[in-house]
Amino acid sequence: MKGSISRRLGLMFALSVMLITAVSATLLRCSLKQSLEDQMQNELILRHSVLDPVLAKYDSPAFWVGLREKLDGLTPADERVRYWVLVDDPAYSYGGAMPDGQDWSKRPDGFSTVELPDRHRPMVLLVKTIAAMGSRPELRFIVGLDSTPFMKTLDQFTKMLILISALGVVLVALLGYWIARFGLGPVRRLSRQANSLPPGDSKQRLDTEALPSELQELAVSFNGALARQEAAWCQLEGFNANVAHELRTPLTNLIGQTQVALAHGRDVNELQDLLQSNLEELERMGTIVNDMLFLAGAESGQRATELSDVSLYEEASKTVEYLEPVLHDKQLNVVIKGDMRVCIDRRLFHRSLANLIQNAARYAVPESVIIVRLESHGMQAQVSVSNAGEPIDNVHLEHLFERFYRADAARARSDAHHGLGLSIVRAVASMHGGRVFAHSKDGLNTFGFSLTSQAAR
Ligand SMILES: Nc1ncnc2c1ncn2[C@@H]1O[C@H](COP(=O)(O)OP(=O)(O)O)[C@@H](O)[C@H]1O
Ligand SMILES: [Mg+2]
């Protein structure tokens, strides 16, 4: 239930309804309160309009006896309506002192309220001054209306509003939750489908056809991830086989030679030769294992760390110088074109450029020229090595950077080239945030890699 979308949607629906009902309930209550207040004022105005002319007409104390009786008659037993006549001459006064004990003779005419000691709600008053007439002095006539019954209506209405709103909110929350659950049905179906994918069968994919459009993208991405996983798995399987294969030959040689040596008596010189030959095999195995470890490190996301700011031209010249003997055998010349300053791991740069030049030297036409190009592409340096040689089939070009891949597989297994050179070039490129490329065109084979200057990243 934690973090459930249905619950969150239900809650959000409920919150929205809460907000909407709170606003509309407040508006409704205000409007009812206003109309109740209008109603009270209208009633006060009506009572004044009936009684004011009578009071104005009665101008002697004798008449006031009758008027008092009339006002008594008009005052209900529950004192919901009350009357006061305020005047200095006690012969004309009615209703006694005001309930709040204040002097109301100084208050302005019009509507006001007064608190009653025994009621919760105030009494609404309409005060009017009636001019003197004959022997009767000027007097103030006050009609009061208890607001309790009106406010009771308002309170009841408010309670009802709150109840209905609360009920509405709960209902919407439940409905929202249900709608969301219903709407999310395809997601559950999708996860069931994903769950039921058989563990051994990496070819299985989710069925995207039956899904609503919103989920199709997710399912397609998921299928993409499965496909990549499958590819990685296949590569890994092939890779294990390759490692075993690569190590088997030197191991078989070592075992065979040692067995033969042990079977017959040997003199020291022969044993020394044997050990020398064994050492070579062991060194070959050591190189493979070291290269493998280096590739594993790069693949786990290791980055170049020993950085220095260098001129690629100078570094490439050093590599070429170091490889002079290899180039000399086939009378090859190396031309370095272009230059760029970048911040890279120079040891790794030498390693990958040397791999490329060694390959070029191996496959170049004798007495030809190998071209090393150093170009800058924005923040990236692009290093490529071209040699004149047999065209390489596109089928191979795509795979040459893979571990243990050799275009001329049959020949390669026997010699010192175990097919990791270009994988190391690719690893070095990726450790510098770069890529590798290869193309074969017009009798020229080019292999290269790019590097992002590390300080600039
Ligand atoms: N300059 C080149 N010309 C033609 N083929 C090449 C060149 N460089 C590499 N290759 C092909 O790519 C394969 C892989 O190269 P690499 O990874 O360096 O392995 P290795 O050199 O150990 O065979 C080589 O076996 C070869 O078939
Ligand atoms: Mg090589």
UniProtKB/TrEMBL annotation:
The chain crosses the membrane at residues 160-180. Residues 242-455 form the Histidine kinase domain. Keywords: ATP-binding, Cell inner membrane, Cell membrane, Kinase, Membrane, Nucleotide-binding, Phosphoprotein, Transferase, Transmembrane, Transmembrane helix, Two-component regulatory system. It is found in: Cell inner membrane. Its EC number is 2.7.13.3. Its main location: membrane. The keyword Transmembrane helix applies. Residues 181-234 form the HAMP domain. It holds the Pfam family HAMP. GO terms for cellular component: plasma membrane. It catalyses: ATP + protein L-histidine = ADP + protein N-phospho-L-histidine. GO terms for molecular function: ATP binding; phosphorelay sensor kinase activity. Member of a two-component regulatory system. NCBIfam families: cztS_silS_copS. This is Sensor protein. It comes from Pseudomonas bijieensis.
